[in-house]
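User: My collaborator sent over this chain with a note saying "see what the structure looks like." That's all I know about it. Can you take a look?
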Amino acid sequence: MHPLATYRAEKNQTQAALAHELGVSQSFVSMLETGRELPGLRLAQRIEALTEGSVPCSVWVNNTKGTNSTERPTLAAE
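Assistant: Without extra context I'll predict from the sequence alone. Here is the result:
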């Protein structure tokens, strides 16, 4: 389970409620939790602040090339 979904479950919070707090759609929260989307840096920072560090920005680092890659991990473009 994705850390964002785990956080929501622990807080007994719906995707819609979390989406409202973050200023995004419920469907976008769903896509974040399933890995179909990545947040931009600002949204990742808002998530980290809202969850009081339970879902840190580092959760969203995407390095699809693997650990031997020379490419730097990136967050989604804003």
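A starting point for your reply to your collaborator: Residues 65-73 have pLDDT under 50 and may be disordered.
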